[in-house]
Amino acid sequence: PLDRWLNEAVFPEEAKLKERDIYNGTLAGCAEMLKYGTVSCNDMYFSGKAMADAYIDAGMKANISLAVTCFNGETEFKKLPVYDEYERLAEYLQDNKKVCFDYSTHAEYTNTEKSIAGVVERAAFHKTGLHIHMSETQKEHEGCVGRHGLTPAAFFDRLGVFGLRTIAAHCVWCDDDDYALMGEKGVYMASCPTSNLKLGSGIPDYKRARESNVRICLGTDGVASNNNLNMVKEAKLMALLAKGKNLDPSLCKAGEALRAATRTAWLSQGRERSGLIKEGFDADLTVYSINTVNTMKARDGADTLVYACDGEAYMTMCGGEILYKNGEYYTIDKENLVYEIGK
Questions:
Q1: pLDDT value at position 215?
Q2: Pairing of strands 188-191, 61-66
Q3: Distance between CA 125 and CA 127 in Å, rounded?
Q4: Which whole-number Å values give the CA distances from 62 to 24, 30, 172, 318, in the listed order?
């Protein structure tokens, strides 16, 4: 279960990580993402400069954030060590157009009203977005109601979170009022179906979110709870779960799943000039081969990519620069990376 997994498996291991470990792990994630055609991602973790350097060296785009946690209700955000790290990160990335930073609060249950309000204030000051985890498990969702008399969505909204560009990861246990609120406030719901299934958290309700005009995008939740950064597989799973959960094969067509993984996801990062093949837009492009035994003959591009393709890209390009092509990395020394991680 998520709470045991975090406290007994993840947090103890993370406490051992050094900045070099986080750089190497992030760069390995970049290599995997480029292999499967991901040009940009949202990444909430620790050691902001190490994260940023990995994306910079890989040539990718990214919105990175430092996971804010606070359990003392009297402590202001400005008193936390992560506050100063955010200020250093803002200075480090101030002229970088590819790698940006957002603010994040890990979750309602790992923060206080004071710490969240402080994060919102700084995000507004720096004109960034917010990245949160929300209603991932039944225990989390009902626990928030017990603590505050509000669902996590209502709780975050009361503290001003939804007044900014917000990506809310998971949203598995949201109710109808939550989805209506998210739709009204323009919140981006980052669905992470594989992670939610693997941890037994539940199945995101694509239908209810869609009916409430929630902006749905797609995430993997990272390799720790997924083991895979293949976004084509993630799009396929999103589409299949929506159909199976609601007994409706017309729900979440392949094109909708691809839009969640592309244009809507770019917009969730505040990157208006990506996610469409259009004059004047950034050349953030992925090419997939359909000259394979499992993709011939492609009658519909979206259906073929989502349901038949294995997800490995032929070429991945960021801002017009080729980063990966036909199995070759142009910015990452894969052999050296494997050596560094194996030390």
A1: 98
A2: unpaired
A3: 6
A4: 16, 10, 25, 11
pLDDT value of residue 2:
84
- pTM over 0.85? The answer is yes
d(CA 234, CA 13): 26
Tell me the C-alpha distance between 125 and 65, whole Å: 15
Residue 225 identity (one-letter amino acid): S
Cα–Cα distance, 89 to 84 (Å, whole number):
9
d(CA 314, CA 9): 36
Please enumerate in sequence order all residues whose Cβ is within 8 A of that of 130, keeping only pairs 6 or more positions apart, or say none.
102, 103, 104, 105, 119, 120, 123, 161, 164, 165, 166, 167
Radius of gyration of the chain (CA): 19
Positions of the chain with pLDDT under 50:
none
Q: What is d(CA 9, CA 268) in angstroms, rounded to the nearest whole number?
A: 30
Size (the chain), residues: 343
Name the amino acid, one letter, at 22.
I
